[in-house]
Amino acid sequence: MPTYNFSAGPAVMPKPVIDQIQAELPSFQDSGMSIMEISHRSQLFEQVINDAEQDLRDLMQIPNNYRVLFFQGGGTLQFTAAPLNLATAHHHIGLLDSGHWASRAADEARRVATQVDILATGTDNHFTALPQLQGPVDQNLDYVHLTTNNTIEGTMYTKLPDTGHVPLVADMSSNFLGQPYNVTDFGMIFAGAQKNLGPAGLTIVIVRDDLIGHAKNLPSMLDYQLFAEKQSMFNTPPVFAIYAAGLVLKWLKAQGGLAAMAQRNQEKAARLYDFLDQSQLFNNPVIPSDRSTMNVPFMTGDPALDAQFIAGATDQGLLNLKGHRLVGGMRASLYNAMPLAGVDALVDYLATFEATHAK
Ligand code: PLP
Q1: Residue 75 annotated as binding?
Q2: CA of 78, closest atom in ligand 1
Q3: Domains in the chain: boundaries
Q4: Has the ipTM of the complex gone over 0.95?
Q5: Which of 151, 250, 256, 351: disulfide with 260, CB 3.0–4.6 Å?
Q6: CATH architecture assigned to 256-356
Q7: Would the pTM of this model clear 0.80, i.e. be above it?
Q8: Does ligand 1 have an atom closer than 6 angstroms to the CB of 151?
Q9: Euclidean distance between CA atoms 291 and 20, whole angstroms
Q10: Whose CA is nearest to atom 15 of ligand 1?
Q11: Which of these, 139, 135, 106, 141, lies nearest to 123 by C-alpha position?
Q12: Half-sphere exposure (CA, 13 Å, Cβ side) for 287?
């Protein structure tokens, strides 16, 4: 029986990438050492990290005036690093409160003495719709923080807010590389790897040149300028995670790049939403225009029935469908590496369950 992993992260990886890692694990490029054992200062690894950066630049069409940095510490560390590096003029940012991860970012920015203005919030509708700007943004803000995809709530910005000259800083952790965005619409993009890119332990930062180098006396491990100067090798980088991410980037190119991924992701998501919208038993609470193609929460409204559904799904090889504890119910994450067949298997099981458990 095939298994499909619907986890929100760490999440499904492309099968050919897992196979390649397995095949070359004992001896990377005939070196007699595994990728986990080679020096990060070796030519072998230099090639790996340079290829990864170039492939990412190709896929996202990242212009030359943007730095690509490889960090550790997850998306969460960037909630601290972004204000420390970029909120240097006024120590004052704006934020669109689109859910849990946006409010975590606000909390962490405040911890490093940054004033955070909530420009709009989804609290009134329990985050079932995206908060939108109601008017022009104060042009003295250092930047506006936006969570492009809300992993827990299942919402996603496809149209970006107009912030005038104020740079947008995007937490793209859960829809990184799932569709094209125009990099020049952002001052900075960051994403933890473990959803759409590779293993946990790697975080990508893409930042415009002119925004960095203004902060004084930052801790070295948080300093974008220093990481840019040292080509992300200020200390030992997460060698294995960068290698695996590099293989995923090559896989993405072979799939036809981000436009092709967007098309596939839309098709997968549409199959699931179409089922949920006609269902008498299951419900997705998000307004259709704001729905995520990556994370789809749904529920019956009866926690006991939800638990029964999840147990039955697990028996069918449909794994990790339990919803986030803040929302309850179920959540299916449909990242790039989830095949259409996985979504079809889920929809089949939903239909079977509904037929036998109609309200
Ligand atoms: N931002 C978003 C949108 C997320 O979904 C997550 C984790 O799920 C994070 C940030 C935190 O990421 P990390 O665990 O890599 O720190």
Answers
A1: yes
A2: 16
A3: 15-254, 256-356
A4: yes
A5: 256
A6: Alpha-Beta Complex (3.90)
A7: yes
A8: yes
A9: 34
A10: 74
A11: 106
A12: 11
